[in-house]
Amino acid sequence: MNHDLNSLKNRIDRIDVRLSDVSSLKEELFRIIHKPGWTTVAEFALVEASLASIDKQIETTTSHYRELIQAAQRVGEK
User: Fold this and answer.
1) Would you say the pTM of this structure is higher than 0.90?
2) Which of 27, 29, 36, 62 has its CA 20 to 30 A from that of 5?
């Protein structure tokens, strides 16, 4: 298998862009939820559940990324 470091760098960059995209959406969501009467109680519960799921996924992704870095640092240790 070829060690294409540019491919790894490109994937890391794509991950960074995707995380930035998620972060940039925050202000749009804030504008929406602060509008009076923007949702019913049931819809609020669905939005809240969706945000809890997104939060958990990001937490898991962050943990996985940290573990990947720690494992990569150990590669080649004797």
Assistant:
1) no
2) 62
